[in-house]
Fold this sequence. Notes:
Rossmann fold, Hypothetical Protein, Haloacid Dehalogenase-like Hydrolase, Chain: A, domain 2, eight-stranded mixed sheet, 10 helices, about 35% helix, disordered C terminus
Amino acid sequence: MKAIQNYEFDAVLRKFLMQSRFAADGAVIVDLDGTAVHEDRGRVYIPEPVELGLKKIYELGRPVVLNSLRFPLSVMRTFGKEWLAIANAPIPVVSLYGSQIGYVTRDEKQELCFEELDAFPLAADEIDEVLKLVKKLLDDSVRDCLLFYYPRDWRMGEIIWTPVAEKVIHVKEKYTSASSVTAVEFEKLGEQLHAEELCMIFLLIEIPQDKLMAYQHTNRSNFFTRKGVNKLTGTQEIAKHLGFDPAHSIGAGDSEMDKFLNGVGLAVQVGNNPNFPFRGLTETVRINTAFELGDFLLRLADFQREILKSVINPAPNENSAF
């Protein structure tokens, strides 16, 4: 898909807003990392243009949904306070690749918390399939692997298992987002995984690709969720709770994990990937960076206001006697 020039971009956006029910039934759904937030030398933040654009969208009264691989505690710790200040309301979140949906908000003590709407944890046999893969790695003397797992109880955060006890401190220092790092025996690991409802498991294998080829259907990075659960299904589920229609909504994402773009009316592809696989149901545009997403949100809000104004105060009919 060729890049759309500004005048073409505006025409596509106006057309979508005029032909859809965005003003009444739509929402804005955004991926976080690489889309709505930017990382610079280890600092992850909401770019000022995105903050300004978000404020304009919130003024329209349309829902803004965060759709991310991140777990709730990560969203809260990284930019929860800043986003809540922009929204001035609980933030709808699709987390863990569609496995848990809810709100980032504040409790009675004004502390950040997560209020779950629904979750779709892995079945016991799905956990066993992951354990079988890990067992095969261990049997083949592969120790350069890490297992990240995310319980449904959001307070538990991110837990990492390493098969090498001597690496626990190193892993803690490298993955500061983790609530805990463990190196229990494999059998004990299985007991711990089955003792909790798990929303997602992530297996990271740090071995050369030529050796990895020996493990059929295995990549260095493997995400495991309940069968059929992904960012698109998470979007569909939270839409039921919030009362919006994805087909009349706008979504923005930057990676091949952002399948929810296939279910929105207008998809915004962020980045320069010429083979980006997802397209909107009616329209698709491409922008380059999170900073440009802010400009997109501002234009969206301005165009929507123009359209609403023209409906409320239509131009006088030249043939009218008044």
